[in-house]
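assembly run, all chains below
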Amino acid sequence: MDTCIEKIRAIGADLLAKGTVEKVIGFANGSIPMATRPVAVTSPKDMDKLVFNCVCGLNLANYVSKNSLSKKEGKIAVVAKGCDARNLVTHIVENQISRDQIYIIGVPCTGMVDKRKIAALFEDEITGFEEDGDTLTITSASKTETVKKADVLRHNCGVCTHRNPPVYDVMAGDPVEEQTLDQPYEDVDQIAAMDPDARWAYFEKLTQNCIRCYACRNACPLCYCPTCFVDESGPQWVGKGQDETDVTTFHFLRAFHCAGRCTDCGACVEACPMGINVRDFTRKLNKDALELFGWEAGLDLDKRPPLDVYSPNDPNDFIK
Amino acid sequence: MNFITIDKKDWTRGIDQSRNAYRVYGPVKDENGCQIKPLAPDTYPEMDAVVTVMSAKSVLFPQTEKILTATLDESKQDHHIMKPVKKDEMPRVVLGIRPYDAKAVQLVKLNFDNPDYQDPYWCAAYDATTFVGLGVTHPGPCDFSTAAGCGPFSEDGLDVLMADMDDKYLAKILTEKGEKWAAACGFDTAADVKESQALFDILRKEAEKQIQADVATDQLAKKEILDLYDAPFWEDVAFSCINCGTCTYVCPTCWCFDIQDEARHNTAVRFRNWDSCMSPLFTHHASGHNPRGTKVQRVRQRFMHKLKYFLDKYDQGIMCVGCGRCVASCPVNIDIREVCNRMNDYETTK
Amino acid sequence: MMGNLLEHMGVDRDRVHFSWISSAEATKFVDVVKEISEKVRALGPNKKFVKDYNK
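ok done. output:
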């Protein structure tokens, strides 16, 4: 993706120089190995701060919504992978922003790496990380490992079928080939195959280390409510402590609020400090949205989400 | 103060022997990573594990702690009267704690145990706990403990400091609590004080050399609070912040909490939960007003508290031990080392 | 989808009911409540999504 970053920088610098946009939101290198941080670049001379690599795992659509975008502000350019662009589309469809407020610099994406998979290769802490095409070189005090990027991809990137942004103003590279999958929801099916008590135990174990930091929620571009249900204090909907019922309630409801909206960008899992695969909740909803409504979020600016509209053909056998 | 050596072959036997007298905590590995937890029977601390995501503060200050209960059954004479939950006074020992986590306990102590106020729950837990630290011979890339008045072999707050010598641990007994623990384990092979101290010094220096933290705190005390408060860089620092509570929850020195009452059937319970200055609800007034209503204000509060308000109030250095957990866990890589340097270097143009 | 997710998480499907009952459909309301009560009674006390302060 080396050529891609040159293009992103050139496009961004041009947009800023011409005054088309006020700022460019993208990723910059972080202060530790395998870290990037979202930044807003406002001057063409700062453009070389921007990077694009396999550790840009957050979703930049999160930095563009009603809460962060004031009416007075000019246009904003966003560096967008397939999923980021789909979430920008979702923002537009949900009236959080208007199409003319943003300029989408589309990036064809070959996936982000799972930092936990990489960390698991080492007994000690990682001190260096290099990406060269499809090869990653990772070093620690005790050894150096070379791995193929494909072997350490995040799960959501491995099952991604929209690597190219569906909507964009300009593309910073040639489209990449989309993956075709025989069993896109194998992970969901595996859980579904368990008996109810085993499923309950599975989800209890999944969230047992949750510290309620809400990084999953806050990293999610869908979560733009001015006050989240867990932060309501009058009335209070859910207990705030570590009680497993409260923790499960939070995860269940957070996920359900993403029903028919989630693009499976994986920012929630990326942000979780405790390594909880909260996608186990949202993946089931995504599967249902696809099977019941033929719906994948964020692909079309002109289609309303399935839970947003009524259709006589809506499945209704659950209503008794 | 004296030194003992502990043969690694005797390590697990010693721990087992101490289980009658102590509840044993230590780093435990599972598929979700490594955390400091009470050790189940037949499990032993992962002494070689990398730094745990969460600090050891929860041993004294659990994220959720039941503090008072009452019955709502009006046929009972004491209905609706809150009563303290029985305090946990069982002696406990935390094995393999990193030295900065023990130093952090001393900083948290300033809040929970001071002349004006003694928190009964925290103090009881503190009195019951023995901290057995393991010197860090290979500090990670986030570790900047030497810049935060601590270090990989800091003794502050520890009862025992151990050093890994391949086939054995060399342990420096620092307090009476530490002596009791060693006796309970049956660890009694004395080591030469002078020689051992010299070894410790070498290990400490070698470990400190590996920490390349370029963090300066020397100017912070001299700065005017309002100059820093009004500094122009906060917007920039806060831009990428998603306002989760990760940094404050993984921090060994963050001590803020929230009191919550809950009731179910005839039982009412008062809990104390960790709270976070990153959350808007933390400062949300009953009137609806929020003095820290924006993300930038909250981010500034966290750094100002850790690096300025605390320093000015207690004169005990910054409220940070340099463990680097917030750096490692922040989803958007906000790095306290960079913010600290920006604050330290800041010159007002006024 | 909510019912499906709850079921996926291991909650018994018979504990979750969705019905559309008009304010004029008193008998339907009674029938539905009866049916739900019987099903839930047959399942016994719920252990999932229930807090226990004694833990």
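The first strand of chain A starts at residue 23 and ends at 29.

The first helix of chain A runs from residue 2 to 18.

not gonna interpret more than that til we talk
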